[in-house]
Amino acid sequence: MTPGFIFATGIENSIPTIRNGTHRVDEMEKCGHYRHWRTDFDLVQELGINFLRYGPPLHSTFLGPDRHDWSFADETFCELERRDIVPIVDLCHFGVPDWMGNFQNPDFPELFAAYARAFAHRFPWVQLYTPVNEMFICAVFSALYGWWNEQLQSDRAFVTALKHLVKANVLAMKCILQERPDALFIQSESSEYFHAENPAAIRPAELANARRFLSLDLNYGRRVDSEMYEYLMDNGMTRDEYRFFMKNNLKHHCIMGNDYYMTNEHLVSDDGTTRASGEIFGYAVITRQYHERYRLPVMHTETNLMQGTNGDEAVTWLRKQWANVLRVRNDGVPIVGFTWYSLTDQVDWDSALREDNGHVNPLGLYDLDRRIRPVGEAYRKLIQDWGQVLPTQSVCLQVPVVMPSEHGHDWARRQRAQAYVTRKADTSAPHNTE
Q: Coiled-coil stretches, from where to where (predicted)?
């Protein structure tokens, strides 16, 4: 059984399209993972990390309805199982296969849920999932800012993308639970805050701060406030679609994973336009806002900062984020994990993947030659120091995490059997919404 605190990293499988859908940005390809995946798994273990945010590339794995190419997933997940590394499986990261179009496609939720079921059936030892990564950010960048995929810029397109993304996530959770009844879902969602630049900007900032919760409100079956309800209805969501989210509350299977970067806080002008504000409140303050809303265990699922000219900028940011994690925990929030994202440097993050410039961003624990960066050394030391302290003091998960090597143990089988009984009873009981 896993220790009480989850130290993780990730290998990003982003696949958005740009240039009106004609060009795909495959971050695994850009970062060399397809060539160096065995070395990358070596690096994960070299750091003393047992948990990895990871998933197969959706566009080259999901070839059509009931058509899959599992060749790369079979190789990589077999190796993860052999090494006893726990994957937090990221099934959809910012894009869909060409044959599916984009997030305006109303067929996407059901098609994706079937894919999630197929994956869970093929890899029954996998327990932890992030079915759809950063649903809010994906909808904003694809359908409100016009950066990726459908490249639209309207509230109606945003609501359409959002309802499809969240429905896909909910249906995928349901399908995975049918295959693995003790599955746990670690949502990875951006934790945002919008600051009014002046008194005239208070109103648009309030609206932006209400809108930031929409993906998780719908995902967790929490009633949105009246203004956001009108916003959803005015922009194409039907009452039946809204009721679907209220009736499919699976939050008791979930950990609220939230991401925090220097760019997560924004200044709002009186005309509603926004720009980055830099860190003002910080992770601890914003995370408490999210926890007070959803009352779920929390995991810090993404952060990073570029290694700058001084060479210690990323290390300083790591220490700051870890101090915020401890502050959240000491304030009574059940925080169960922390992630530096990603394992290696990223490519074209500086343009939010909107441009294919091949620009390497020094954000990783290792560079793209797989040489450890100072932040990698610091993270390894942090894990060594705190990994011995936190397990005995951490909040226990309601459903224990099963290591890959423990999947066949009697206690793990009993856990799955009990989860199946509980799940059957839960699906037959009426659902309450908050």
A: none
Residue 424 pLDDT: 75
Domain that holds residue 248: 6-428
The enclosing H or E element of 18 equals strand 17-18
User: What is the number of domains present in the chain?
Assistant: 1
Per-residue pLDDT for 368 more than 50? yes
Q: What is the pLDDT of residue 398?
A: 45
Tally of CB atoms within 10 A around 273: 12
Residue 434, in any domain of the structure: no
DSSP annotation of 154 reads: S
Question: Which domain CATH number covers 376?
Answer: 3.20.20.80
3-state SS, 57-109, equals: CHHHHEEECCEECCHHHHHHHHHHHHHCCEEEEEEECCCCCHHHCCCCCCCHH
Q: Going along 313-394, which residue ranges are E strands?
A: 335-341, 346-347, 360-361
- Asked if the structure places residue 433 within a domain, the reply is no
pLDDT (tens digit, 9 = 90+) per residue, 237-262?
999 999 999 999 999 999 999 999 99
- Distance from C-alpha of 186 to C-alpha of 338, rounded to nearest angstrom: 12
Task: Please report whether residue 120 resides in a domain.
Answer: yes
Closest to 337 measured CA to CA, from 73, 51, 32, 34: 51
Give the global pTM.
Answer: 0.96
